[in-house]
Amino acid sequence: AHEALRQSQKMDAVGQLTGGIAHDFNNMLTGIIGSLDLIQRNIATGRMDRVDRYIEAAMTSAQRAAALTSRLLAFGRRQSLDLTAIDVNALVEGLEELLRRTLGEQVEFETRLASDLWTASTDAHQLESALLNLCINARDAMPQGGKLIVETANFERDDGRDHGGLDAGDYVVLSVTDSGSGMSPSTLEKVFEPFFTTKPVGQGTGLGLSMIYGFAQQSGGHVQIDSELGRGTTVKLFVQRFHGERPVGSDRLSQTPLGAG
Ligand code: ADP
């Protein structure tokens, strides 16, 4: 077993939007403007060989800026959850193509989907964005490439053993495992804090895991991270099983189809 096991911890809820975020955003815009400027000049002087590269750079910065604003919006809004009966395997399969493209050639991507997986009670949109976030984190931890496994499983918490804050009950577990850098103990302590990031300015917002944590808390789930420096990381997202009745916290009953339970 990995020693550096760290459970999610209680966090004081919402972090304030700080000047740091505006600063990050500004850096992204500066990157876009700089690239556009270079494109303009290169075109003006007929040097087309580097234009592709600058367009790529502008695109990357713009995508980061867009991702940042949508995360900030979601974070600020603290979207109300829409818990419905969800087939997590189907959700993973639906994202597979996008994930493969996002991860690129360097990352070997594998899914291990449990054939008898329970129906989950969760917010499909939030779960998708959590999965994407986890896979992007995994990719970022494997700059040299590596292996990423997305796995689903049933988990029954019915014994008296300590599962680090996981309430008794049935869960669907969605886990993302990478063979990347892993995290130091001091990083592990802070990963769920809003705005904590070890990534270069403009690349990390530090909101991914804190939002996933918030989502898990709100939906009666749980996040568990198992990471070892130099070996890799597994993030497990525990989602409540759907029991064929009104899911916990749901305020939109009508959208809940009958689950296989
Ligand atoms: P961001 O990805 O924007 O930095 P997150 O909240 O998603 O924000 O992650 C916070 C930090 O946790 C990252 O900057 C990184 O140091 C660490 N981290 C998250 N996922 C992984 C992973 N799979 N492997 C190694 N480190 C990770």
Automatic annotation (TrEMBL):
Keywords on record: Phosphoprotein
Keyword Chloroplast: no
Domain annotation Histidine kinase: ranges: 20-243
Keyword Phosphoprotein (UniProt): yes
Molecular-function GO terms, alphabetical: phosphorelay sensor kinase activity
Full protein name: histidine kinase
